[in-house]
């Protein structure tokens, strides 16, 4: 998790005044390595402090803000700063002591990070700072080895992993970075349009590797895999899946195997070149490492890394993707490493995972005014990983016979990924090379023998490498049978890619011509646009069901224009929380057009007020043109109330499906739930009927279901289950057991007031180790909440009686359900999460009542 304000205490303060100076002191050797920390010296009167800032956009933003503040001081040197914002720090914060405000003449900044779950500092290090060669130590600088430096916790590295890099060429301007305005965007747009005038292509080789290591530690050299090319590649992008299968890795995203496999990779890179580690990103067991030849390091910039989980409830990181994007010379490149849903029949779930990753994985840009970049907004995309697509319609004997004949072409016709690509269901626009190697899954660990276990899996090409972009040639695509650590074989591909390089003289000439033309345009014209439509209606909006309408803008003026949706008076954002405009701001060339997606999506935070009728699907968007006028866009719609996002108490007073209830009744029930003293004469149900339907379905059909509550369902089936609960039709729940299980978790997650109400949360933490006190707290809950808690606990105990079949245990269920039943009214830290799990475990043991 990232460092938050709660993790930091303010001890001393240094004012930014005329006596203040900040200069960069990084050595030339440090500047030469991508990912190196930025060192700056802060001076104030007689005091000096050297700061080491992790590379990335956070550091650049911080330094630009410092520079901006210093510039403001210089503009008004006689004005005495009052520092009124410091007043709020005079009080103690979260038990971490009182902030000490020293006299301004003697203050110096010190930020102390107090980690709640911090390990001893001598065991901490940071892998991001390991920029040494794989073949030895540089003469100019000694880089700590993994053994001596150790590795940081995930919390320590998160801010690094989600940041941007900078190169020597842009570090010089780090303290004076202007925000992009209209003129900057005009120039940028024209430069992109005329890119062919000042760029040329040069080939660089990218080694892509993927390996599902099945939770194993490195037992053999990776040299046969990573050094299989005759010449050293320019870049390495190495992906792993199932790095660690332990529960600790799954629930707390912490594993020692990250360091072990990273060390194994660094030792196996091609011996004829020296490489710098640019970036490492990991989500549970999915890890991606990016190395570059040291001579290319200075041309790497704008490095960002992101992750997205597609596991249960769309959040758990046992399945999902990690990605790194960067700019190399003048080309934008994105590398994705994914692990998609398992099991031969789940190809639709794999398709859904792919679409989720493409839609949800976004990289922030250095210019905060620009919308985030999606995967597809890159010149080149490399996609690697255990995609888990299987071979279907052939039994295991037929598959093995084709393999023995090396008839891979015939076998490939039965490959699910090939069929889904042919149907344009996934990976549209991507290319995969010809497969002339045998399937990479599943082998007996430590051998080349096909799976001899009871399940006897059908061999499959689970591990794949695809690409999208122009000027890419594949030089090899192969598996590596020599490695026997896992039940998968690693796969590699060498892709030679044409990268756009800049001709400096041509660039200067093009830039100057663009500036002259823009100067002329700015003096002549006022921007204007035509809107194809100004009123949008969204019909039958449902909980967690995306709807979108397209707003088309055409630039009918004589000059390029910049647009932005702006806030209305007394409102914090430009739109209601259930509505987004994508993109919310942008640039339109003269005679050009842009399509803006107006998207409506109701989630757990917006559903309660829409269910009760307190809020409606109604909003007005204000579209502003810089140097032009404002346009008003009306958004309306009707929302279909749902049991998702409705309180337990209100649901217990509904004997009919929620969509059969009058709106006025829903409003009254919501007000009754908010006021505990309100008396309703009608006897309520013991538990919500919707909850009973889901639990009863699972009790009858899924008590022995393997991986229940651990494997996600299908989104289309969740929609059917939600509609059934909200309308009462059909009589029984549709969908697979996994979809019903996920629907139950989503129901609990959406409750406005959790099963254990917020007012009891702190008390539960305090007595979590005392079983009798825990039971006493539950007995004090409002009756409907108490009934739900006991009903769910009894159901989960029944599941545990069948653990040999469903592979559940107390720790797994406590981790999943405690976070839903006992929610913090504020942000929950790791220590609190462990206490909630300890509290709930008392109710899962056999002796519980």
How does this model look, in words?
By secondary structure, the chain is α+β, with helices and mostly antiparallel strands. The chain contains 26 helices and 27 strands. Strands 8-9-7-6-18-17 form a 6-stranded mixed beta sheet. Helix 7 (223-226) links the parallel strand 6 and strand 7 (235-241). The longest helix has 19 residues, at 57-75.
Keywords:
single chain, 849 residues, alpha+beta, 6-stranded mixed beta sheet, 5-stranded mixed beta sheet, 26 helices, 27 strands, 30% helix, globular, disordered N terminus
Number of helices: 26
Give the overall form. globular
Unreliable sequence segments: 1-7, 91-180
Profile the largest sheet. Answer: 6 strands, mixed
How many beta strands in the DSSP annotation?
A: 27
SS-derived structural category = alpha+beta
Summarize the structure.
The chain has 849 residues and is α+β, with helices and mostly antiparallel strands.
Write the SSE topology:
Elements: E1 8-12, E2 20-24, H1 28-31, E3 38-44, E4 47-53, H2 57-75, E5 110-113, H3 146-149, H4 154-161, H5 168-171, H6 182-193, E6 199-212, H7 223-226, E7 235-241, H8 247-252, H9 257-268, E8 275-283, E9 286-293, E10 300-309, E11 320-328, E12 331-339, H10 347-360, E13 362-363, E14 373-374, E15 380-386, H11 396-404, H12 408-412, H13 416-422, E16 463-468, E17 472-479, E18 491-502, H14 504-522, E19 529-531, E20 535-541, E21 547-555, E22 561-566, E23 579-582, E24 585-588, E25 593-600, H15 607-612, E26 618-625, E27 630-639, H16 648-652, H17 663-674, H18 689-701, H19 715-727, H20 737-750, H21 761-766, H22 771-779, H23 783-800, H24 803-806, H25 810-821, H26 830-841
Parallel strand pairs: 6-7, 12-15, 20-27
Antiparallel strand pairs: 1-5, 2-3, 3-4, 6-18, 7-9, 8-9, 10-11, 11-12, 13-14, 15-16, 17-18, 19-21, 21-25, 22-24, 22-26, 23-25, 26-27
């Amino acid at each position: 998790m990232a460092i938050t304000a709660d993790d930091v205490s303010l001890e001393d303060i240094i004012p930014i005044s005329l006596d203040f100076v900040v200069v960069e002191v990084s050595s030339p050797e440090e500047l030469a390595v991508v990912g190196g920390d930025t060192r700056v010296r802060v001076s104030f009167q007689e005091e000096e402090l050297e700061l080491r800032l992790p590379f990335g956009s956070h550091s650049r933003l911080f330094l630009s803000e410092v520079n901006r503040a210093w510039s403001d001081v210089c503009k008004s040197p006689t004005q005495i700063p009052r520092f009124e914002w410091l007043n709020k720090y005079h009080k103690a914060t979260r038990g971490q002591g009182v902030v000490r405000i020293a006299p301004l003449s003697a203050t110096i900044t010190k930020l102390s990070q107090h980690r709640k779950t911090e390990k001893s500092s001598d065991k901490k290090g940071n892998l991001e700072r390991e920029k040494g060669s794989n073949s030895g130590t540089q003469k100019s600088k000694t880089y700590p080895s993994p053994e001596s430096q150790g590795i940081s916790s995930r919390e320590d590295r998160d801010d690094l992993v989600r940041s941007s890099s900078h190169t020597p060429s842009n570090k010089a301007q780090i303290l004076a970075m202007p925000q992009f305005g209209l003129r900057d965007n005009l120039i940028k747009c024209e430069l992109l349009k005329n890119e062919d005038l000042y760029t040329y292509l040069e080939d660089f080789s990218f080694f892509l590797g993927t390996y599902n290591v099945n939770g194993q530690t490195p037992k053999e050299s990776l040299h046969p895999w990573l050094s299989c090319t005759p010449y050293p590649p320019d870049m390495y992008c190495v992906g792993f899946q199932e790095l660690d299968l332990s529960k600790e890795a799954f629930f707390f995203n912490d594993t020692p195997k990250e360091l072990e496999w990273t060390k194994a990779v660094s030792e196996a890179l091609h011996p004829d070149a020296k490489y710098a580690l640019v970036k490492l990103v990991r989500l549970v067991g999915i890890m991606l490492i990016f190395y570059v030849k040291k001579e290319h390091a200075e041309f790497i910039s704008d490095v960002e890394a992101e992750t997205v989980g597609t596991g249960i409830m769309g959040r758990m990181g046992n399945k999902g993707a990690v990605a790194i994007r960067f700019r190399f010379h003048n080309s934008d490149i994105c590398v994705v490493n994914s692990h998609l849903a398992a099991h031969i029949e789940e190809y639709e779930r794999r398709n859904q995972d792919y679409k989720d990753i493409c839609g949800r994985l976004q990289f922030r840009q250095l210019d905060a005014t620009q919308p985030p970049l999606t995967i597809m907004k890159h010149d080149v995309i490399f996609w690697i990983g255990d995609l888990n697509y299987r071979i279907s319609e052939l039994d295991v004997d037929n598959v093995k016979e084709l393999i023995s004949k090396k008839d891979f072409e015939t076998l490939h016709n039965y490959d699910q990924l090939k069929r889904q690509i042919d149907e344009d269901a996934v990976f549209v626009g991507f290319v995969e090379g010809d497969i002339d190697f045998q399937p990479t899954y599943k082998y007996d660990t430590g051998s080349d023998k096909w799976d001899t276990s009871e399940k006897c899996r059908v061999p499959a090409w689970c591990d794949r490498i695809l690409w999208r972009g122009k000027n890419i040639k594949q030089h090899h695509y192969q598996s590596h049978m020599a490695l026997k650590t896992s039940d998968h074989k690693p796969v590699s591909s060498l892709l030679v890619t044409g990268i756009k390089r800049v001709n400096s003289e041509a660039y200067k000439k093009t830039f100057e011509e663009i500036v002259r033309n823009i100067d002329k345009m700015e003096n002549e014209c006022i921007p204007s646009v035509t809107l194809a439509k100004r009123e949008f209606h969204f019909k039958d909006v449902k909980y967690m069901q995306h709807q979108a309408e397209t707003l088309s803008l055409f630039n009918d003026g004589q000059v390029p224009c910049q647009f932005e949706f702006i806030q209305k008076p007394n409102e914090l954002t430009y739109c209601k929380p259930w509505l987004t405009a994508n993109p919310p701001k942008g640039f339109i060339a003269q005679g050009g057009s842009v399509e803006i997606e107006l998207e409506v999506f109701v989630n757990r935070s917006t559903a309660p007020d829409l269910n009760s009728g307190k809020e409606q699907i109604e909003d007005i968007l204000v579209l502003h043109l810089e140097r032009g006028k404002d346009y008003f866009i009306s958004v309306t719609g009707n929302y279909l109330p749902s049991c998702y996002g409705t309180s337990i108490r209100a649901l217990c007073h509904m004997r009919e499906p929620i969509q059969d209830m009058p709106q006025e009744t829903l409003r009254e029930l919501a007000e009754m739930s908010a006021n505990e003293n309100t008396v309703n004469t009608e006897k309520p149900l013991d538990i919500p009927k919707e909850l009973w339907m889901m639990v009863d379905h699972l009790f009858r059909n899924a008590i022995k279901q393997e991986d229940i509550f651990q494997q996600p369902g299908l989104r289309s089936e969740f929609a059917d289950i939600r509609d059934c609960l909200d309308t009462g039709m059909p009589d029984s729940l549709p969908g697979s057991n996994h979809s019903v299980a996920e629907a139950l978790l989503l129901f609990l997650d959406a409750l406005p007031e959790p099963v254990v109400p917020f007012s009891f949360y702190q008390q539960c933490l305090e007595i979590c180790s005392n079983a009798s006190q825990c039971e006493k707290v539950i007995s004090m809950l409002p009756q409907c909440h108490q009934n739900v808690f006991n009903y769910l606990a009894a159901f989960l105990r029944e599941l545990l009686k069948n653990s040999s079949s469903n592979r559940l245990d107390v720790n797994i269920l406590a981790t999943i359900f405690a976070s839903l039943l006992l929610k913090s009214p504020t942000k929950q830290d790791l220590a609190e999460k462990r206490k909630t799990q300890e509290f709930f475990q008392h109710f899962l043991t056999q002796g519980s009542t």
